[in-house]
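Q: My labmate handed me this sequence with no annotations at all. I'd like to see what the chain might look like in three dimensions before we decide whether it's worth expressing. Could you predict it?
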Amino acid sequence: KKTLLPLLQEETPSYIFPCHLAVQRLELQHMVLELLRCIPLLLFLLFVCGLDHFIFSILSIIQHHSFIEYSYQTSHHLSVNVMGTSLMAQLLRTTMGALNSSFDTQVETSNRACLPQPTGMTREQYLNTCLPLGALAVLCLAQVYPFRLRRAIAAFYFPKREKTRVLFLYNKLLRQRENFSQLRRGRVARQARQPPGLVTLLLQWCRRRWPWLRRCFRRSCTLCGIPETPRHRPCPNPDCSALYCEPCW
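A: Here is what I predict for the chain of 249 residues:
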């Protein structure tokens, strides 16, 4: 039975662990790429909503300032009254009474039918337009956990193929482990060649002048960046201010 080598501190972010709830570095990169692909859709949606609101405002202004309403009203009343009780008066009342007439006319018209009728998007329509995009963004964030099941499904249906894949990745890790120390030495050498910045020099001076400030301004490991603990070891060279955690040392 072979024992697998444990991962080093710097190798841990390069691998995805299915049981971890936190989103890891590789998964975060894919998530950011998926969200970036949603940006054109979001910009197009904002452009369409803004254009609809702009056109609705323009049409409302045109309708408000171009609206004209006409109102025409006329009234006609004709009444002939013949006084007297003679035969001639009675005859005139029966003949001239037919001329009595009365009518009122009122006409109202406008150019509303000729004006544009703006019909902007309602609040419900805006929500119905934004909900699919919001659901797409949620799916981009939640796709990390279903993607982790791919390897379990492949191992269940194709165990031999998945075993070959795992052995290949393990051998690749071993090959990388051979040059890992040299790579870390080169990284430390490059950092040592760079002159320390003004902030770094100021923090070092404060730590030497006031030792109680070390609790506030804790240093970190030169390689992996873990905050300082009692197990960290400084470089034995007195001219070097590098600090290393126990695994990196």
